[in-house]
Amino acid sequence: LLSSEMLLLLLLLLGGPTSFYLKQISTFANNTWAQNQGSGWLDDLQIHGWESDSGTAIFLKPWSKGNFSDEEMTELEDLFRAYLIGFTREVQDRVNEFQLECEYSPVIWRESQ
Ligand SMILES: *[C@@H]1O[C@H](CO)[C@@H](O)[C@H](O)[C@H]1NC(C)=O
Ligand SMILES: *[C@@H]1O[C@H](CO)[C@@H](O)[C@H](O)[C@H]1NC(C)=O
Questions:
Q1: What range(s) does the MHC class I-like antigen recognition-like domain occupy (predicted)?
Q2: CB 96 near ligand 1, within 6 Å
């Protein structure tokens, strides 16, 4: 029986279709409080997390660092930390421009009852 990880590694070795992407979820409670959650995904498998308090990556698999050295990973974490601090500040500074209107339709609501 193949685990999903072994299957993914096999796909990688065979050069099969694989995507890597990063997810960012930023929560802004008010003008001063914000939290950033981050994760790294290889197709459907999460291989990275993000410790938002310390601003460090969490490696969920022994091979999550890929070919990066510890030093390179530290540099990447520095980059992400700087980006997240800048992003948070930009959003908080422009909070009035970013206000979204949430449409409420009583007609649609009634129809679904
Ligand atoms: C902002 O939101 C945080 C988290 O919900 C809360 O703890 C804090 O008291 C709030 N601050 C103000 C000024 O409303
Ligand atoms: C990653 O490391 C492996 C084994 O050391 C090597 O064969 C491969 O070429 C490296 N890949 C990249 C993109 O550096």
A1: 19-101
A2: no
Q: List, for residues 40-90, the tens digit of each pLDDT value.
A: 998 899 999 999 889 999 999 999 998 899 999 999 999 999 999 999 999
The answer to whether 54 and 77 have CB atoms below 8 angstroms apart is no
Ligand 1 site, residue 28, Cβ cutoff 6 A? no
Ligand 1 atom nearest 32 alpha carbon: 1
Q: Strand ranges (DSSP E) for 4-94? A: 20-28, 34-42, 45-51, 56-59
pLDDT number for residue 19: 86
Cβ of 32 less than 6 Å from ligand 1:
yes
Closest-approaching ligand to the CA atom of 92: 1
Mean pLDDT (the chain, rounded): 82
